[in-house]
Amino acid sequence: MVINQISKDAKSKDCFENFEKIMDFVEKNHFKYKAPLSDHEVNHPRKVKSEIHEWLEDSIAFLRKLPPRSIPAPPLPKDAKYAPNLLLESRLFETVGIYFGEEETYLLNRAMLKLLNETNAVSVRFWGKILGRSRSYWVIEGQVPADNPDPLPLPYERFGQGVNALTYWVANDVQGHWHELPAISPEHIKRARTAKHIMTGHLNAKVDVYPPFPGVEKHYLKAQIVRITYSTVIAPNNFYKANDEDATKIEISEEFAMPGTEELKSLENWVHVHPNILEAGRITHLEPQVGPEEDKDEVMNKILTADPIKERLRPLSEDNPFTGFEANWLVRVHGDTQVFNMADKDEGKSTTYAVLALRPLTWPGACVIANNNTWSHIYVGYGIKAGGLPFFPIAPNDIMVEGVEQDEMPEPNPKNPLPEPLEPNSDDEGKKKDENGNVIDDQDDA
Predict the structure, then answer these.
(1) pTM summary value
(2) Does 288 have pLDDT greater than 60?
């Protein structure tokens, strides 16, 4: 039809110009001829699954693998598995501005139960979310019995001890596969302190930092999670007490009574739960290798003096203040602070809807909430510590300006000296010379 129309307008001056426009339009729109559908294709169209159908199938398969009921809250019998109810905790986190939506929260809660049933973990909790450039990591923390038959080589700390005391699973999709992060060495901790790297979302991606990191992103991710956990996980004072036999271990105090919101606003009423990570990248120092003339205890005392082990249940008020602030923690109360008296079976007790939030300045994204008799921890951020080294190495100094070039001077003792110039007013000056420099007599020319 197009050709027929052009042939009719052949006498028109715009005939070829219109043809060029049509051809250009066809090329830009990638015109492809397609044969008409047959009767069978028209009556039996092919079913195309949309993204929502694929998501529904994944959700159904994910939910069918889980137990129909959630694990009951404590008190639990000995050796029972435990997972907190994230649906209830999410309401408190929403009060302080942290919310993932009902759908995502429900799936996270089911994912925790799935890990609790499919692994040998005795307890799990939702740790938080590490944001990345292309994909982010959902993180679940768990306590796994230290019965791994394969011991780690030194200077690694054993499974269930030190920086490898807790187990972490990560996933890019809540309904996807949860990967267990590997054990880390002291070198991973020390190098992570000198690096600032935004996650890519791929566990085997290279960590492009300087100085070079001894591992891939899954090792760096585990190191950052451990650093954040050991710095920001806290508990009300007197909830834990030191073990009578081993001061490095703690246990729950049976005489603990939860303080009120006003009392918890003081940093002195909160203590760190985990021990401090030493500059050596471990929780404890390795036994020093000493010579025959050295005293082992004396060498260990020097190591402890240079890199001391802090008290485990140390109050937050003893933390070094952040630059420009009086303390390292920001405390804020959200919601209604009114105290209400309870009735019925809880008569004589009081409750409040206020939610206390404590945020460390050294780790932006970490948050601890407390309400009545419960408190919880969460982290949502890029896993980068505030302050410290910049993202990139410092640029080198500017190139210095080149010096002034000196004038060239003649060689004082040349190998082939030039002939000395003739003296002025000489008899030979102005006379003709041959190729060898001899004076030509005018009489010879005659």
Answers:
(1) 0.74
(2) yes
